[in-house]
Amino acid sequence: MSKLLEHNPDPSYGADMQHDVAVAAAVELAMEFYGCDAVTAAAKRAIEARHLERESHFRFWVNVFKSLKSNPHLVADICRSD
Questions:
Q1: pTM for the complete prediction?
Q2: Mean pLDDT of each 10-residue bin along the chain, 82 residues long
Q3: CA-CA distances (angstroms) from residue 10 to 2, 3, 20, 21?
Q4: Which segments of the chain are extended strands (E)?
């Protein structure tokens, strides 16, 4: 068995990592651009994507929303600096 397969048996592993990096980048950009409203903005983007039947965009924005909600200290830090 190759070294690659020993450490990476799931073919979706690379795609999952890219998705995680994209979500992390979107979280940072949402906080930078929307500040205290980052959580609301992510939720709104998810709702818009659902309305437009863009399922992959919907899931992406839901993950951004969840990430922001699970780290309230990040948004709180931004709100205090405004």
A1: 0.74
A2: 48 64 92 92 96 96 94 82 58
A3: 14, 13, 16, 18
A4: none
